[in-house]
Amino acid sequence: MRLAQRMRRAVPAAMLAALIAATSLTMAAPSKRQKPVSAAPPSAARAPDVAYGAYQRGLYLTAFSEAKKRVDEKNDPKAMTLLGELYSEGLGVPRDDAMAADWYKRAADLGDREAMFALGVFRMTGRGGPRNSQEAAQLFENAAKLGHAISAYNLGLLYLDGQLFAQDYKRAAALFRQAADAGNPEAQYALATLYMEGRGVPKDLKEAAKLLGQAALAQHVDAEVEYAIALFNGTGVPKNEAAAGPYLRRAAHSGSAIAQSRLAFMYATGRGLPANPIEAAKWHMIAKAGGSTDPFLEDFVRKMKPEDRASAELAAKPWIAAVTAASRRQN
Q1: Helices H, strands E: what count in the chain?
Q2: What is the Cα–Cα distance from 87 to 207, expressed in whole angstroms?
Q3: Which of 101, 275, 304, 306 has its CA 20 to 30 A from that of 15?
Q4: Domain map (residue ranges) of the chain
Q5: Is the dihedral of CA 134, 188, 114, 28 positive or negative?
């Protein structure tokens, strides 16, 4: 029996809907901030970047002051982008989308790719001014030409969607490839789905599996699920049922109902993981609460000893409560 491939394909409309979530600046949390919008990356020939260093430490007023100084003295576009981020997130200054957009535009006009990306997000979402998808797409394209991976990915989504531009799978694939080669897991996953379906690129299950594996290593949940299924079934990669388990377990703990259901299957059958009826029933119950059902597992649970089923229900109870609460918040 093969592990059922209930894999969520990269449906264009669904992927475009993910654009808004995917394009928030990666500097939202202090521990996860990245270097791109620093006022001037330090090098052997440059002094330390005081503005960015203050930003990284959460000293936002100092970051603002230092960035403003850099703008006044050197008209530095990186400092402008940092000011835009501070206003965008309300860090050290009151949140002001109009001011953020103004700083991003000034930096973008001077060629800063991070500012182009940020302003593109604003134009796409209507922050800091009227929504303008055409301008957003142009900003993403400009940033992508300068090597901005997420902008390339976003632009690929727009070509995949086929509303703003004529649908062009080949162009989308090329943009996803640019972002995927730069290490963007969203793009790796998106490109993998195109290789699986042969859209915009020749159908190539080996390349699809390779890309899924790369995204899975970056803990992209959907990629973890699909790469695990590929490993279990030997689709585009040598068959290795045991190797599928850790990916499914991680995705299951991240809330993927598909992963929870497939993990339950492995525990129920003892394939790739030691057989464990209680764990199988627990994960099936959790998956079912999340909307993923399986007749085989339903029958498996029905035939369990009452005491084992009760143990599984007890173990699943807090998970199901969390799933239910999350569903209510979304509705």
Answers
A1: 18, 0
A2: 42
A3: 101
A4: 244-331
A5: positive
Q: Measured between alpha carbons, how far is 268 from 88 in angstroms, rounded to an integer? A: 49
Share of the chain above pLDDT 90, in %: 81
pLDDT per position as a tens digit, 11-31: 444 444 444 334 333 222 223
Q: What is the residue whose two structure tokens read 């689709």? A: 235
Residue type, 132: N
User: Measured between alpha carbons, how far is 169 from 92 in angstroms, rounded to an integer?
Assistant: 43
d(CA 7, CA 13): 16
Q: How far apart are CA 253 and CA 61, in angstroms?
A: 38
DSSP H or E segment with residue 258: helix 257-269
Per-residue tokens: 308: 């084992």
**Do 54 and 45 touch, CB atoms closer than 8 A?**
no
State the residue for tokens 């302003």: 119
**Residue keyed to tokens 């998970």:** 319
The tokens of 46 are what? 């440059």
Closest C-alpha to 191, from 9, 16, 26: 9
Question: Token digits for 165?
Answer: 């531009």
Which residues neighbour 72 within 8 Å (Cβ) at sequence distance 6 or greater? Answer: none
13-49 CB burial, b ≥16 within 10 A, e <16: eebbeebeebbebebeeeeebeebbbbbeeeeeeeeb
